[in-house]
Records
---
Amino acid sequence: MNIEKNQIDALNYKVSISIAADDYAEPLRKQLNDLRRRADIKGFRKGMAPLSLIQRLYGDQALYETVNRLVSDSLNGFIRDEKIRIVGEPLASEDQPQLEWKAGNDFTFNFDLAQTPELSFEVGGDDKIPYYEINITEAAKKEMKKNLLQQYGSLQEGSTAKENDYIIADIENASGHKAEGVYVAISSIAEAARGMFVGLKAGDKVTVDVNEAFENEADRAAMLKVDRKDLPSLDPNFTFTVVNVKTFVAAKENQETWDKMYGEGNVTTPEQFEEKIVEQIRSDHTQQANYRFAADARKHFMDKAAVELPEAFLKRWLVYANDGKYTAEQVESEFPAFIEDFKWQMVRGYIMGKLGLKVEDADIREAAESYVAYQYAMYGMGNVPRNLIESAAKGVLEDENQVRRLEEQVEDNKTFAALREKCSVQTKKISEDKFRELK
């Protein structure tokens, strides 16, 4: 057996493995004998069929498996002995010769291998990364208050429909298809037809082509109370008779509203309400600032590491590894995002090793519980019992894709938190407008 290595450049190798007949003769003999012992062939007692018959029945398969096992073991041993930081997996070279699978032949296998570069950089006080503190302005507080009161507002009886109002109408076309008590958000009507509804009041009628006025088929079918497949058969000209108008009114700034927002008795004065508003703005600003710090830190260390990867090899490997799910053209179009993420994984892994950071099972479990709590909060459920969160988190942790996503998130969080401690973080006060202008 002979292995030849040709290092194309710092990251790419071509490896040739030659297997002579003598190299596989004894392993092949042992495999055929093993097949004979296990063979249950009609006309012979189990394990007593002639070896010549076993050779004729299973010889090609045994030869293929024996030689490929030798090649795999040799290649893995070569990678281990040469300490190659393998990326992806070895690929058959494009110049691989055609093989004739016949016992007694010699075989040559050519492989392309690629490795990742060895990273080496320091992490510490010489790394200067900005951290932005966003100023809280009176305008921001006013806007937050307005949004909160809108959020806790309600639909009330209106008189004349405006663009952000709703109408409740009975509708009917000339064929007699009708639907009663239909809610229509005027803002959802196509712009060209919206003006026909603005200004309507109870008792008014308007006839419109619903295909033009309500462009979303699913919404249109729900409004007309028909299956989506039946829409083409309907006369689209419907008369809307307004039953009443509903207008959205923001909540009033009073005790009832504060109790709904923060729990009974937790806020009792306008001053305390403003403090809560400032807390929420500060929390939002902190999230934005942390996100920006993470982006700046990532770019800083990506630039510092200057990672070079065997991109041509990786493109070939991605097509091969996805087993026909992606064409070479699809891989090419998505490759820039993939390669940036791949490089960051390398840089992040190096930083974590450098700083002694580890991800424990408890970290993943905590991240799963936080994710579940966030999902509940999105549906307005802010005080979910602990046992429900833990139960839902267990379900999340049974999904391998979710676990991988959580691991990535935890690794990022630990890395960026450590970098804020280790690097020279330069705090900069900035206005919201200037912060939004940052590239």
---
Amino acid sequence: SIAGYESPYYLRLDRTIAGAGTAIFYQNIEDPRTLSGQTATFSFWAKAASAMSVSGGYGQVFGTNGSTSVYSTDVFNINITTSWQRFTYTVTLPSVSGKTIGTGSFTPFFIQCPSNTTFTFDTWGWQVEAGSIATPFTTATGTFQGELAACQRYYQRWTTSNSGGNLSTMGAGISTTVATMEIPL
């Protein structure tokens, strides 16, 4: 529990096999015109089973038939400890003036975990907001019912009756132990 937001729910990645791939978590903001040319602050809470370092950044993805995507990686590098901590970073996003915005465009903020190692990484309370100050974590709507309704725009549940069921409609095996897949919402 973290003061001000007592919730038992958070995302955990427990990587038990060191592969060649990298785990990246994204928070996509609809439409790269949102926050274009503005200062934005990304904040999140994180901890790990043992100390580890993560990096992160942001991008502007202009969608199908749009301009070429732009990513700024390694905007921050932080050390995660075994206790919950809040991390923040502030950036000024480039203007999208002169860019072509296609369908499916977005602005991603992301955390990249180390590759080729095992770890347990926990995170929650992601927040992206205009300005240079990370405000206390709040829900977008102020109520649990409103938050549920807002989240249901993106929620998708896939179930399977066996352990070998499909989780994705497209993917690729990179090696005998590593695969990538996209789960579109």
